[in-house]
Every structure is written in C-alpha cells, then in structure tokens.
C-alpha cells in the first residue's frame, strides 16, 4: 500500500465517523457544552481510531483488532453506566452508533472501503428515521407482525434449504420452484396489504397490481381475490386491479420473446398487443366506474399462508401434467402442454417454446402455443375471482376477461395461418 492509499483510507475512516457524528450532533445540538455523550468531533475521532486499529491489525496481527474492539466496548459500557446513573436515560443508540463507527473505520483498512461507506450511509439514514420507525411500530398490529415473521420464515429459512432439482415421475417436481411460488404469493399479498394500508385503497391496490403484475400476475390475482372476499366495499376497485395485473402480463410476455427469439415477435405482436390494449382499457373503465373509497379501509389479514400453499400444490400438479403431456404426445402435445402450463404461469412455457425456434419447432406452432397459454392463463384469473371473491368483483372481472379473451382469439384468427 502506498502512502497516498494509506492516507485516503484513514481519511475515509475519519469521514465515516464525521458523517455519523453529524447526525448524532444534530440530535443533541441544544445540549450544553459537555452535556452530551459524543458529538461531531468525538465520532470523527472514533472512526479514525477504528481505522488506525484496523491498520495495526492488518500489519501486525488480526487478533489485536478484537482486543481493541473489546476495550472500546468496555469504555462505551462504562460511559453508558455513568450516564444512566446521572440522567436515568436508558437509551443506548449513541453508544451503539459509536461502536458501528469504530467497526466501519476498521473495515476500511481491512479492504472493504466501499462496503464501509455504504453501511455508514445506511447507519445515518436509520438513525435519522427514529420518528418514522417508531410511528410504524406504534401502528403495527399483531397480525401484521405475525404475517411478516411467517413470510421471513418461509423465504429466508425454508426456501434456501430446499433442493433445486427434479423429483417424481420424469423429475417434473422441483421443490425449490414450487415453494418459490408459495413465497411469491405470500410476499405479494403482504405487499398489497401494506400498500393499501399506507397509500389508501385507490393508489395502494393499483400500485400493487401494476408492479406485482410484472413478477406474477396470477399470484396478484389470487391475493386480490382473497382481499375482495373479505372486503366487499373494495371489490369494484379490486376488479380494476386484477385487470391491470393481468394486462401487464402481455407486454412482459413480448419482452421475454424479444429476448429469447426475436423472430417470433412479429407473429405475436398483433394478438398479444390487442389483448394488452383491451385489458388496459377495461382496467381503466373499471377504475373510473368504481366508487371513491374512504382513505382507510379495515383489512382483516395480511395474507393466508394456507392459501399460498394450496396454490403451490396446484402448481405442482400442473408441472407434473405438463411434462406428462409432452412425454406422451411429443410435438403433437405442444398445444395441450401450453394450455396446461397456462393454468398457473405463462413465462415457463413461453421460454420453452421460444427457445425451440428455430430448430425443433416451427415458429407458427410456437406462436400458437404461447397465445393459447396466455388465453388460458387469463381465463384462469377470471375463474379465480369468480370462485374466490364472488359478488360485483366476479361480475366485473368476468365481463372484462371475456372481452380480453375474445379479442385475443379474434386477433389470432385474423392473422392466421400462423403455423405457416
């Protein structure tokens, strides 16, 4: 390491301490001189101290850094004890920030300057959000906390340990992919719940539908249908959300085809584009016809894990059926395979068929298969709403989905013969 690099790293360690010190000093700016635990200068020195000890540990023995951190922690603990005895203030935030400043200063010298700088910014942001974070905690309800913990359990704990390989007949069942869909449905449901609670039903539902539809429109539909079953006053707006999420599937499908097999794009552009236009128009009409809702609507449950698990079981059955049709009928089963795959998802069959062109599959056959999957998937979304939500949401969604499907069929026939 050159002298310039050494000074730059020590300067960064000092800057990290100063950055944290600015936030801590601003919080206690009204305190008298000597009346606060640590301010701008002290935090700057703490960051520099961490950088110096990181340099010593790197050049002499890494164990020295552990002893230095242990000693500094003891010093912070003594200061905290004296502060509690004097002021009866049990807050430990400033002491914790000092420990972080020391550790980040050392991290710079250990070869991770970018990570240290980024974590310093995150630390200052978190410290400055005290009022906001405490406000969130006060408004957090027990079922919301339980739902968040359940989502973390099934995603962070369970998902990584599942094998990402096929099992069962034809190795068609992949536990990782199936459970990933369960996690996705649960995450979209929880996201939609908080979006509606924070932004209000109008903006929250539409925001969830638009962005959730980019990832998994079927999962969004399932979540909104369940919400509609429990909240009759939201049904007109939820119907618009279903159409918005469903329609977002069509441009996403075209983007996938353009990336994998651009030669298919001209063939699919008309039927898929027509369905997208009709779907977005129906979503707009449903949204404009929906009565304005109050700013706050009582939502009963963030999501139901059992519903997501049932959908995962259905997905597993569809995956098995799809592979079986391909094995039994070969290329003649492409359309049946597309229809079966479209029950749960269009991305997998789209990637599969587009990847076979040119080569083992005619462009027209692949295009027909993709359109069939899109039509079936759109129909399934309508049926989900009809059987789960019912009421005005079912009627509105059924009419709109019928319009989308019929327009797609008409556009497909108008551009025939695609298989040529």
TrEMBL record:
It is found in: Cell membrane. Residues 10-134 form the MgtC/SapB/SrpB/YhiD N-terminal domain. GO terms for cellular component: plasma membrane. It is a multi-pass membrane protein. The lineage of its organism: Bacteria, Pseudomonadati, Pseudomonadota, Gammaproteobacteria, Chromatiales. Residues 183-388 form the DUF4010 domain. This is Uncharacterized membrane protein (DUF4010 family). PANTHER family: DUF4010 DOMAIN-CONTAINING PROTEIN (PTHR39084:SF1), MEMBRANE PROTEIN-RELATED (PTHR39084). The chain crosses the membrane at residues 6-26, 38-57, 63-83, 90-108, 114-133, 145-162, 177-196, 205-225, 237-260, 267-287, 307-325, 332-354, 366-390, 397-419. Its main location: membrane. Belongs to the MgtC/SapB family. Pfam families: DUF4010, MgtC.
